[in-house]
Amino acid sequence: MKKIFLIALIGFLMLSCSNSDDSNNNCNYLLNIGVNLTINLSLPQYNQLNFPSNPVYIASEGNGGIIVTNTGTGFVAYDAADPNHTPSVCSKLIISGLEGTCGCDDQNKYSLFTGQTLENTSLQCGLKAYRVEESGNSLFISN
């Protein structure tokens, strides 16, 4: 009886395995660049983050810079490079209110609150998010 159970278990495990690789190659455009950044909200260049719905762009971090937004209930940070494009001059997002728009011809739009696509729902990748920790008057952004 134990042999039958063991054979059935092994058979079930073998049938439940899949040889297809469902990894989405489209989401592999951005590099996993190490980000470890501290922002002092008392500094003038980050003063907008003290108020909800004011995104701030920080250059020289991540793939195309980082966009940080105060959502009113916390902070979110996303890479400013369009994850649905190979890195290029036009793939950096342009902040327009609470949206980030790709500078390439297709002008992909993303929410700077959620990181999701706004108009083209066929896009497979949302913005690359970074972890944000709040401590006093500082934000620690990392991946």
Describe the structure using short key phrases.
six-stranded antiparallel β-sheet, single chain, 1 helix, three-stranded antiparallel β-sheet, 143 residues, 29% strand, 9 strands
How would you sum up this structure, described in words?
The protein is mainly beta. The chain is built from one helix and nine strands; from the N terminus they run H-E-E-E-E-E-E-E-E-E. The strands form two sheets. Strands 1-9-8-4-3-2 form a six-stranded antiparallel beta sheet, with no helix packed on it. A hairpin with a 7-residue loop joins strand 2 and strand 3. It is extended. The model has no long low-confidence stretch (mean pLDDT 87).
Instruction: Indicate the overall shape.
Output: extended
How many extended strands? 9
Model regions low in confidence, pLDDT < 50 over at least 5 residues: none
Strand order of the largest sheet: 1-9-8-4-3-2
Compressed to H and E, one letter per element, the order equals: HEEEEEEEEE
Straight-line distance between termini: 50 Å
Strand content: 25-35%
Structural class: mainly beta
Helix content: 10-25%
Rg (CA only): 21 Å
| Mean pLDDT metric | 87
Tally of alpha and pi helices: 1
Major sheet: 6 strands, antiparallel
